[in-house]
Each structure stands twice: as C-alpha cells, then as structure tokens.
C-alpha cells in the first residue's frame, strides 16, 4: 500500500468533521507516562535512504542456515503454481462470502477445503477452517464440554504439543468449575513415549474429553489409537485427536477410522511456508451427529431455482451472527486465504503425489536416524515408529549442541529441555522431503564436531 501523507488542509477538514480541535486530542485517553515518553527516534529519512534502510533490515531475516526444526511448523516444498493461483485478485482480495450470489468461487474453494480435510481425517463433516491448530484443539475441548454436560474436566496428554496444551489451559482457565488436567498417562513419564493405556484407564470418569496428538509431539505414531478410543468411550469421554503434521495422514490410517470423535489440527504443511511461525490454518472435523455444536462456519452445497449447483454458508454458529448464549464460539473470522492455499496445494499434488511425498518424509527421516545414531554419544530415545520427526539424545546438553551447530550454519532441531526439563540432553529433529542426503550428511558431520 503506498504511503500518501495528508496535507494541512486535509487534516483540518478531517478534524472538523469529527469535532476535534487538534490531532493531540485524539491521544487523550492514553496515560501521561506514554505520551511523555522519550522514544529517542532518529530523524526522518528521504525515500531513497528509507528504502535502503528497510532493505538492510530485511536482509537480517535472510539466512542460508540448514534447518531441521519442526515441532508443529514444517518446511515443505511449495510449488510456484500454488502462490500464483492463490494470488489471483478473486481470491487474494476477497472478503468473507456473506453474499453467496457474488461469492461462488470463494465458497466453492472452501467447500473443497472441507472435503479434503474430512477425507484426510476420516471424518464426516469439517468446518470452513479455524485460526490454527492450537485454537482448534481448544475449540474442540469446548465443544466436548457442551456435548458432555455435567462433566467438568478436559484431560490432556503430556505428549500433546506443549503450546497446544497451554492454549487449551488458557481457554479453560476462566470457565467456572472447569479444569484442564494433564495426566501422567504417557511420556515423559513412560519409557515408550506414547499413551499408556493402563494409566489412562479409570482416569476419565468426570472428563468431557481426552485430547492427544497423532503423531505425538515426540514424532511417535500412536499405534494404539483404537484402544485409546475404546477407553474414552467406555468411561463416557470423547476422544479428540490433534494433528500438527497433516502430511503424516497421507501415510497413516486416519484417526476417524479408530474411533476419534473430533479431529483437529494445523494445515500449514500444505502450501504455507513456515514464515517465522505463521500464519497457519486450523482445521476441525467431527461426526455428523455433532454438527450443530461445531464452532465457526460451514459451507454447504445446494442447487438454485434452475437446478444448477450453488454454495452457501450453511451454518454460522458464532457470536457475530447469533445470540451470544446460543453461539458455539466467539470466533470472528476464518483463515480463508490460507484455506484456499491449502486447497490449491492438495489439488495440484493429488492423492498419489501426496502419498509419494509422505513416503519421502519417512525415508529421509529414517536415513537421518540411521546416520545420527552411528555417531559417538548419540542415540534414539524411543523405539516407537516415527513419521518425519524423532528424538535424539545427545552426549551433552542439547542447547550447547545446538549453539555449536548454529556456528556451522546448521540448526539441528528443537532442544526439548525448553518444554521437558528431563529431556534437556535431547533434540527433536525434523526431516522433510526438502532435505537431501547431502543435507543429512552435513547435519551429522556438524553433530559429530559439536
């Protein structure tokens, strides 16, 4: 957007229109300590100097560092066609499709987004996207509390993404009588790193739901998902499965096949670059019987008076549209452009292409595990199957290892001690299809020196 300053006459006219004598009066509500603060700002720059200054700041963000970070935000290749198509003004500048007669293109894309999400999760209905995976998990917990009235707890698996747990806990903190509890039903309390059925059994009697991750935060595939679902349903709780890495769903059986009641997650892997952590696009799927308790919006397909297919916003159960006491959430938007990018990516990659990418992730990560565990002092922490992430124990503190690797231009992964102090000598290493054999070899060479 170009910057066009206002001249004195324009400013005067604007102030007269709103009934204010001077610009300073607009800042009256601000505290005096802020208004009198000395920010020590530099003198204004001429446009050419300003452009050079901004370019220099942008260069600071550029890096040729080889990164093996993941943990909920993944580096996958994005075909150029995805950005080109999503950048068309019909999508890029479109507002919320309240008027279906002029929004058929946007509504059709969101409908396809819902279709893709439901198919990947193995569920019956999906909404028109959420903010991100963490808030989608929190909204799922709220929905379960509505469906299981009288129950006052939301139980979280300790190997659910720590940031997802924090968001759910924040949502629950101000609801009277409701508790978000993390149970010692899995890692780091169990050597296997996955949910322990013996600990889970008998712990859900007053709980509305159990929220877990698939694959979990340690990159492990929860192979007993069906049994976990049985325990939840036997004790009257619903099973919520969060998916932080949806690429895994192209290689694994969908959670819906194993009795999940709600499947939520983060869709950033499909067409959205990591971009320093956002934006992403959350997804939310559930069973048809829970449709009217689903938060956000849902696009439906119908027919016009001539019998031609058409798309409409079928459900909008949010405060912006209905009475607050009847709303399922206070969500005020959805990430429609990010959902469009998600949809375009999957339509271009296709079913077989997505499966091939998933296999490449598995193979690349397996090679990285093989090479890394051949180094002196490095070993795998867990034996369970993985997708594209794994926990690697280091010969000394993981933060020290990472600092040494960064000096060599390689980010080896996430030090787990930030979230799990008992694993302060462990790295969570992520290897996607963007990493070559040479990249993995370079990682291992640097780890050996570190």
If you had to describe this structure to a student in words, what would you say it looks like?
The protein is of the alpha/beta class. It folds into two domains: about 65-80 and about 350-450, Aspartate Aminotransferase, domain 1, CATH 3.90.1150; about 80-345, Aspartate Aminotransferase, domain 2, CATH 3.40.640.10. The protein is built from 13 helices and 15 strands. It has helices spanning about 10-20, 30-35, 45-60, 80-85, 90, 105-120, 135-145, 160-175, 195-200, 225-235, 335-370, 400-405, 435-450, and strands at about 65, 125, 155, 180, 205-215, 240-245, 260-265, 280-285, 295-305, 310-315, 380, 390-395, 410, 415, 425-430. Strands 2-8-7-6-5-3-4 form a seven-stranded mixed beta sheet, sandwiched between helices. A four-stranded antiparallel beta sheet has the order 11-12-15-14, covered by helices on one side. Strands 1-13 form a two-stranded parallel ribbon. The mean pLDDT is about 90.
CATH topology of the largest domain: Aspartate Aminotransferase, domain 2
Order of helices and strands: HHHEHHHEHEHEHEHEEEEEHEEHEEEH
Radius of gyration over C-alpha positions, nearest whole angstrom: 25 Å
Low-confidence stretches are none
Structural class, by secondary structure, is alpha/beta
Q: Level of helix content?
A: 25-40%
- Total of helices: 13
Number of domains: 2
Kindly state the number of beta strands. 15
Q: Main β-sheet, in a few words?
A: 7 strands, mixed
Biggest sheet, strands in spatial order? 2-8-7-6-5-3-4
CATH secondary-structure class of the largest domain: Alpha Beta
Coarse shape:
globular
CATH architecture label of the largest domain: 3-Layer(aba) Sandwich
């Amino acid at each position: 957007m170009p910057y066009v300053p206002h001249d004195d006459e324009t400013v005067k006219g604007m102030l007269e229109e709103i009934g204010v004598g001077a610009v300073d009066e607009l800042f009256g509500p601000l505290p005096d300590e802020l208004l009198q603060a000395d920010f020590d700002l530099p003198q204004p720059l001429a446009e050419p100097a300003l452009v050079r200054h901004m370019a220099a700041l942008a260069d600071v963000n550029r890096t040729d560092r080889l990164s093996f970070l993941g943990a909920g935000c993944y580096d996958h290749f994005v075909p150029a066609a995805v950005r080109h198509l999503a950048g068309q003004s019909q999508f890029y500048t479109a507002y919320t499709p309240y008027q279906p007669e002029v929004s058929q293109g946007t509504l059709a894309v969101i409908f396809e987004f819902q279709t893709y999400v439901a198919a990947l999760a193995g569920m019956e209905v999906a909404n028109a996207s959420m903010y991100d995976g963490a808030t989608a998990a929190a909204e799922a917990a709220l929905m379960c509390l509505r469906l299981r009235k009288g129950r006052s707890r939301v139980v979280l698996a300790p190997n659910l993404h720590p940031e997802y747990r924090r968001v759910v806990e924040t949502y629950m903190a101000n609801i009277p009588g409701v508790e978000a509890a993390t149970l010692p039903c899995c890692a780091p309390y169990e050597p296997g790193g996955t949910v322990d059925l013996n600990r889970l059994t008998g712990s859900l009697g007053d709980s509305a739901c159990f929220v877990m991750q698939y694959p979990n935060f340690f990159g492990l595939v929860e192979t007993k998902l069906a049994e976990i679902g049985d325990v939840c349903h036997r004790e009257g709780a619903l099973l919520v499965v969060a998916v932080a890495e949806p690429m895994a769903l192209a290689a694994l059986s969908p959670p819906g096949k194993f009795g999940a009641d709600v499947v939520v997650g983060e869709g950033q892997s499909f067409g959205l670059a990591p971009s320093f952590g956002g934006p992403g696009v959350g997804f939310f799927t559930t069973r048809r019987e829970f449709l009217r308790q689903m938060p956000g919006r849902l696009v439906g397909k119908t027919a016009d008076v001539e019998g031609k297919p058409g798309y409409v916003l079928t459900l909008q159960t949010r405060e912006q549209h209905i009475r607050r006491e009847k709303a399922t959430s206070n969500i005020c938007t959805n990430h429609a452009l990010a959902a469009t990018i998600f949809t375009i990516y999957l339509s271009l990659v296709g079913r077989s292409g997505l499966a091939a990418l998933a296999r490449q992730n598995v193979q690349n990560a397996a090679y990285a595990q093989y090479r890394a565990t051949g180094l002196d002092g490095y070993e795998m922490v867990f034996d369970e199957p993985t997708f594209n992430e794994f926990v690697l124990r280091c010969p000394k503190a993981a933060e020290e290892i990472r600092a040494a690797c960064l000096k060599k231009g390689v980010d080896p992964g996430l030090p787990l001690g930030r979230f799990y102090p008992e694993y302060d000598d462990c790295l969570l290493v992520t290897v996607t299809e963007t990493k070559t054999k040479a990249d993995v070899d370079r990682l291992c060479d640097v780890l050996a020196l570190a």
